[in-house]
Design goal:
With 803 residues, the protein is of the alpha/beta class. The protein is 35% helix and 19% strand. The chain binds one RNA strand of 87 nucleotides through helix 7, strand 12, helix 10, strand 16 and helix 11.
Length: 803
RNA sequence: GCGGAUAUGGCGGAAUUGGCAGACGCGCAUGGUUCAGGUCCAUGUGAAAGCGAUUUCAUGCAGGUUCAAGUCCUGUUAUCCGCACCA
């Protein structure tokens, strides 16, 4: 027997798999289809790190197993290659981002191939390929044509480092998610996508998909649906303001109202106010602050009263002071609130600071002068006219009904979700395929002119005033209006990185199609995706954006399903050996090249799956990797113990069937760590027996194949039944053989373990009780005591309660 | 501040959903084989007490429910993640 030469073996089988094309998926087949998807990587300059393969190996195991079980499996891969890091690298090193991308992809590809994933490489996609982004642009044009893309001047987050606008979702703790620079507020005309139009469906349709609960909760919270009411307040100036509230029941307790400083009404009222300077100063101050700075001052509320005008409470008729304060956001609701300090903490803080009245309208709390009482489940209405005595839950609809009847307000659903800021003033993204004509406005370019390719330029830096680098491509910009033929200019903004990744899973289905993003036939066959695994960090951005686009394509009749992914799971992060997040600056990054070189791809794959619970983050361990290598070597060395005996050895028979069952189940439940542990135990049993039959050995390597595909293919070639193990049938188990005829019963007295007995598995409750209570040990233990109660759990234990 | 997750030996982690806590691996110890080679094989390994069979204590902390709690309930602490006054 030769020694376990993993580097030779791994290269050999990677070549064989490529030559035979055994992992190519065929569209349309009698077999059941299985479409497994992992989040395609962003090909960064650093190359793969040891965290990437965790997700890829997991679905590779499921894909390989399903293939062996007779499924027609699609497990594709591609590159999410537009984006800032590449562009920044290109700027710094004066290399075209296209070249940088090409090099990075080559490196990633080498690394992924080295790990032996069963990807269908013939379907590789690349978001920066014009043949690909042609369809990204095409989808954008459809959105535009349906009125879901619009341009609007609005306050945006401006990254002082990258000199680009960021969507709120990309701002992390007040700094740019990518470069870490300060983010400030600025106004700029931007392309927006109306994802909010899909908010309701994005929540409701979660009921039809199998996502892990955490992901569903996080998406729902992000969309943030709330049911409330809009209420009209007449002002003493004769104007009208509309506030949004979820607590219409507390209207009798509203003692002042607040407008966001940017609210249009403030501008309108200004000329007639007494303290114009003070107000203007506050508005300027608030405008300078980033959203982060505003919230940093959360405890200490600020604001200015609009002197010379009051609002009239529609139910009490009382005049209320009007304030502007930056604790009210112009982007949410109507940008105006009615303040009920007795029952809202923020309002309470503000009221205390500005000495405003606090009127209790819900009983049941402590003194509202001391703290706000916010419980909606306890307490009835007081000081509230026709609502008095009602519980809050009834008072809310009662008040809304009253408002609607009087024409003073209406029921209103609001969402936290905001529209998707889609413009970037950057080079390395898809050009937005629109033309601006003085006469016709924004005009889409004809679809037959797609792809609209990026112009070749030399300088990729954004312009000084934040304009796109494309603005320098004069020849490219100047064009004619497709509508009227007059001279016109192209849009110079590009799309965000999220665009290409919002539909890539559809292109895999039919990647070389020139006439459509994918053929209808192929889409009908492969969608929806059966299983999508990815990181929790993509739960609110990518996952939501791609669901939105998919739903839009569904509405157009392009895709046959309303949801793209049937099932979504999530992997935990692999941390550095010191338990901290892997990063270059911490110096704890583990390079896959090194570990594969040292222990082989099979050992790395095995360890990545054995390292801990798949959905939890866990630190890397070089010793742990060594342990998995040792396990594979023990499997390899079993060759020495192989006997010519036929069939399974009797003592291991039930063990084998139990292992087949456990491993099959565990792979599907992503409990890879315990599945591998079961295989380790089985190997230990073979060592204890000092022998293994060929049948047992082949079962073992088949079960291990999805995890360690190279070594098991090699062993299959030596001892197996011919052909590739990767396409051989998955072992079946006999349920009857997984059940033991005798089980161990734990005997407890007052909950303490006192004895263990082997009893027949068929024995019923009474039988077990009789056997146990009549045993000598038990008789001795309960002697002289009274038995109060005996609990029998068949197959588990007997607990005798004595006094 | 709000929301979510997590907490089990020296370490990574198991525990069929209320039923023997610590599977499997690492590490460590002892013995054997090879005795220069990242060895390999076997046995042991939560803590404390005892020569011992055994006993007691142990799943972040404090209570509670139950014959029985890592698992359920109440409170609390720590760590990590997400969000930023969402009315």
């Amino acid at each position: 027997m030769g020694s376990y030469n993993f580097s030779e073996i791994e290269k050999k089988w990677q070549n064989k798999w490529e030559e035979t094309g055994c992992f190519h998926a065929e569209t349309a087949s009698d077999k059941p289809k299985f479409y497994a998807l992992i989040e395609f990587p962003y090909p960064s300059g650093q190359g793969l790190h040891v965290g990437h393969p965790r997700s890829y190996t997991a679905l590779d195991i499921v894909s390989r197993k399903r293939r062996m079980q007779g499924y027609n499996v699609l497990y594709p891969i591609g590159w999410d290659a537009f984006g800032l890091p590449t562009e920044n690298f290109a700027i710094k090193n004066k290399i075209h981002p296209k070249i940088v991308t090409k090099n990075n992809i080559a490196n990633f590809k080498r690394q992924l191939k080295m790990l032996g994933f069963s990807f269908d490489w013939s379907r590789e996609v690349n978001t920066t390929d014009p043949e690909y982004y042609k369809w990204t642009q095409w989808i954008f044009l459809q959105l535009f044509k349906k009125g879901l893309a619009y341009k609007q001047e609005m306050p945006i987050n401006w990254c002082t480092g990258c000199k680009v606008g960021l969507s709120n979702e990309e701002v992390v703790n007040g700094v740019c998610e990518r470069c870490g620079s300060e983010v400030v507020q600025r106004r700029k005309s931007q392309w927006m996508l109306k994802i909010t139009e899909y908010a309701e469906r994005l929540i409701n349709d979660l009921d039809d998909v199998d996502y892990i609960e955490r992901v569903k909760t996080q998406q729902k919270n992000w969309i943030g649906r709330s049911e409330g009411a809009e209420v009209k307040f007449q002002l003493t100036s004769g104007d009208e303001m509309v506030v949004y509230t979820t607590r219409a029941d507390t209207l009798f307790g509203a003692t002042y109202v607040v407008l966001a400083p940017e609210h249009k009404l403030v501008e309108k009222l200004l000329p007639s106010l007494e303290n114009v300077d003070e107000i203007k100063e506050y508005i300027t101050l608030a405008g300078k602050k980033s959203e982060f700075e505003r919230t940093e001052l959360a405890k200490d509320k600020t604001g200015v009263q609009l002197k010379g005008v009051n609002a009239i409470n529609p139910v009490t008729g009382k005049e209320l002071p009007i304030f502007i304060s930056d604790y009210v956001l112009v982007t949410y609701g109507t940008g105006a609130i009615m303040a009920v300090p007795a029952h809202d903490e923020r309002d309470w803080d503000f009221a205390k600071k500005f000495n405003l009245p606090i009127i209790e309208v819900v009983a049941g709390g402590e003194n509202v002068q001391e703290a706000a009482y916010t419980d909606v489940y306890k307490g009835n209405m007081v000081n509230s006219g026709f609502l008095d005595g009602m519980p809050v839950k009834e008072a809310i609809p009662a008040m809304i009904k009253w408002l609607e009847e009087k024409g003073l307000g209406k029921k209103k659903v609001n969402y936290k979700l905001r529209d998707w800021l889609f413009s970037r003033q950057r080079y390395w993204g898809e050009p937005i395929p629109l033309v601006y004509c003085e006469k016709c406005g924004w005009v889409p370019i004809p679809e037959e002119q797609l792809p609209l390719e990026l112009p070749e330029i030399d300088e990729f830096e954004p312009g000084e005033n934040g304009e796109s680098p494309l603005a320098k491509a004069t020849e490219w910009i100047n064009t004619t209006c497709p509508h009227c033929g007059a001279p016109a200019k192209r849009e110079t903004d590009t799309m965000p990185q999220w665009a290409g990744s919002s539909w890539y899973f559809l292109r895999y289905i039919d990647p070389h199609n020139n006439d459509a993003l994918a053929s209808k036939e192929a889409l009908d066959y492969w969608t929806p995706i059966d299983w999508y695994n990815g990181g929790m960090e993509h739960t609110t951005l990518h996952l939501l954006y791609s669901r939105f686009w998919h739903k839009f394509l569904f509405d157009l009749g392009i895709v046959p399903t309303k949801e793209p992914y049937m099932k979504r799971t999530s992997h935990g992060m692999i941390l550095g050996e010191n338990g901290e997040k892997m990063s270059k600056s911490r110096g704890n990054v583990v390079n896959p090249d090194e570990v594969v070189n040292e222990y082989g791809a099979d050992a790395v794959r095995t360890f990545e799956m054995f390292i801990g619970a798949f959905d939890q983050s866990t630190p890397w361990s070089q010793d742990g990797l060594k342990g998995c290598y040792k396990f594979l070597e023990r499997v390899w060395n079993l060759q020495d113990m192989m006997t010519d005996e036929e069939g399974y050895s009797k003592e291991l028979c039930s063990n084998i069937h139990k292992t087949i069952k456990k491993v099959s189940d565990d792979y599907e439940k992503m409990k890879f760590n315990t599945g591998i542990a079961a295989l380790m135990s089985l190997v230990n049993d073979f060592y204890k027996a000092g022998k293994v039959t060929k049948g047992e050995f082949l079962t073992l390597i088949t079960l291990l194949n999805p995890v360690a595909p190279h070594m098991t293919e090699e062993l299959w070639e030596m001892y197996g039944k011919g052909g590739l193990l990767s396409v051989s049938p998955w072992p079946e188990y006999d349920e009857a053989l997984t059940v033991d005829s005798e089980v161990e019963i734990v005997v407890q007295i007052n909950g303490k373990i006192r004895d263990k007995m082997m009893v027949s598995a068929e024995l019923d409750k009474a039988g077990i009780e009789k056997l146990v209570t009549e045993s000598d040990t038990v008789k001795k233990l309960v002697d002289g005591k009274t038995i109060i109660k005996t609990i029998v759990v068949p197959g588990k234990l007997v607990n005798i309660v004595v006094k």
